[in-house]
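Team,

Forwarding the record for the chain on the shared tracking sheet. I've put the sequence and predicted structure together so nobody has to dig through attachments.
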Amino acid sequence: MTLVALQSIVNLISHIFFILVAFWSLQALRTDALIKKYHIPQARTLYIITAIALGYSASNFFIDFIQSIQNLFFFL
């Protein structure tokens, strides 16, 4: 397996993992007071999009951090 394929698999797994962690973490919030009475599908969609945005951002941060450390070792 090439390095590019391995890196792509690691990125996908990282994104999925952090999206699931963000979804799990968002369940701790009490959002029922913010949701209008008959807008449950819209609230669920917003919940999922928020989890994707948070998880993707966290995943990119950690991937960039790891790549920066690897580049630092190549520099030394």
